[in-house]
Amino acid sequence: MGEASCAAKGDVVHQEITRWFGQQARDLPWRRGCSAWGILVSEIMLQQTPVVRVQPVWEEWMERWPTPADFAAAPAADVLRAWGRLGYPRRALRLHAAAARILEEHDGAVPDTYPELLALPGVGTYTAAAVAAFAFGRRTTVVDTNIRRVHARLVIGQALPAPALTAAETALATDLLPEDADESVLWNAAVMELGAVICTARSPKCDLCPVLDKCAWIAAGQPEPTYIPKGQPWAGTDRQVRGAVMAVLRAASSPVHADLFWDSVAAQVHAETAPALRKLHDLNTHAPQLERALAGLLSDGLAQLSETGYHLPH
DNA sequence: TAGACGTGGCG
DNA sequence: TCGCCAAGTCT
């Protein structure tokens, strides 16, 4: 596809998608003109985690720790408990480290450039671009899973983007980005929203799509994906045990002795789904798995060990 | 660069 | 019911 056709297509599609966004955008708390800190917190929480689960935690978080300084002063255990069941708790620790860095190196203010944001713990290319755009109005190329999927269908004509982000995808996203900064911010948000609400991975709502008649995937007859997405194993994995251990530690008011850990973790796992149980019912004969999980949590700084047992970090 | 890393809702 | 999938990052 040549540059001219992309640019021409971009102009038409731009109007329709941004107009749709203006009318249909979800009313999310971090879209109501919150601080850059609020945007950063939302972006970290939203990594691999649905909006509906993030929203209540974000609300409590911002009330409790309205600035990076407030948050940096909190004990790690409080941070991990407040994170609750959002998942991937290492994100909470990295955000904590990022807040400390913001205090030390940026005078307590979230930095406003892409490279400075990218240097913060837990902030990768997506989050750095998103914060630069949505918190500071900068023209940056934002590429997340939603945007990748919309581009794959609308422009390329494929059901799904490649398994991993390619340079070509980033180049396409940059090519489609409006020159004007304000328009680019709106465009990034609008395409992301379209992917999240209409152009979804499974059963997309094409009948509600504002650019259905411009979609290359529709024009091609909605071809099937060209590869099978890898599954994400869970039941019976170390990850499940880590999750169960973390749930026990968050609930504990005092250190949990190693000898008692299995009973606590088993009770936690017992509360989970039947398939998980099936894989794990004999896990107590596999103490090495629990040992691996504990060792991993220790080395990740998510847990600490003292004479009386395991506990959340101070 | 492929694999590890939580969790819960939905089709 | 069970596998897919969600605003990724790090090693």
TrEMBL record:
<protein>
    <recommendedName>
        <fullName>Adenine DNA glycosylase</fullName>
        <ecNumber>3.2.2.31</ecNumber>
    </recommendedName>
</protein>
<dbReference type="GO" id="GO:0006298">
    <property type="term" value="P:mismatch repair"/>
</dbReference>
<keyword id="KW-0227">DNA damage</keyword>
<dbReference type="Pfam" id="PF10576">
    <property type="entry name" value="EndIII_4Fe-2S"/>
</dbReference>
<dbReference type="GO" id="GO:0035485">
    <property type="term" value="F:adenine/guanine mispair binding"/>
</dbReference>
<dbReference type="GO" id="GO:0046872">
    <property type="term" value="F:metal ion binding"/>
</dbReference>
<dbReference type="InterPro" id="IPR023170">
    <property type="entry name" value="HhH_base_excis_C"/>
</dbReference>
<dbReference type="InterPro" id="IPR003265">
    <property type="entry name" value="HhH-GPD_domain"/>
</dbReference>
<dbReference type="GO" id="GO:0006284">
    <property type="term" value="P:base-excision repair"/>
</dbReference>
<keyword id="KW-0378">Hydrolase</keyword>
<dbReference type="GO" id="GO:0000701">
    <property type="term" value="F:purine-specific mismatch base pair DNA N-glycosylase activity"/>
</dbReference>
<keyword id="KW-0004">4Fe-4S</keyword>
<keyword id="KW-0479">Metal-binding</keyword>
<dbReference type="InterPro" id="IPR003651">
    <property type="entry name" value="Endonuclease3_FeS-loop_motif"/>
</dbReference>
<feature type="domain" description="HhH-GPD">
    <location>
        <begin position="45"/>
        <end position="197"/>
    </location>
</feature>
<dbReference type="InterPro" id="IPR004035">
    <property type="entry name" value="Endouclease-III_FeS-bd_BS"/>
</dbReference>
<dbReference type="GO" id="GO:0051539">
    <property type="term" value="F:4 iron, 4 sulfur cluster binding"/>
</dbReference>
<keyword id="KW-0234">DNA repair</keyword>
<dbReference type="InterPro" id="IPR044298">
    <property type="entry name" value="MIG/MutY"/>
</dbReference>
<keyword id="KW-0408">Iron</keyword>
<keyword id="KW-0326">Glycosidase</keyword>
<dbReference type="GO" id="GO:0034039">
    <property type="term" value="F:8-oxo-7,8-dihydroguanine DNA N-glycosylase activity"/>
</dbReference>
<dbReference type="InterPro" id="IPR000445">
    <property type="entry name" value="HhH_motif"/>
</dbReference>
<dbReference type="InterPro" id="IPR004036">
    <property type="entry name" value="Endonuclease-III-like_CS2"/>
</dbReference>
<dbReference type="GO" id="GO:0032357">
    <property type="term" value="F:oxidized purine DNA binding"/>
</dbReference>
<comment type="similarity">
    <text>Belongs to the Nth/MutY family.</text>
</comment>
<keyword id="KW-0411">Iron-sulfur</keyword>
<dbReference type="Pfam" id="PF00633">
    <property type="entry name" value="HHH"/>
</dbReference>
<dbReference type="InterPro" id="IPR011257">
    <property type="entry name" value="DNA_glycosylase"/>
</dbReference>
<dbReference type="Pfam" id="PF00730">
    <property type="entry name" value="HhH-GPD"/>
</dbReference>
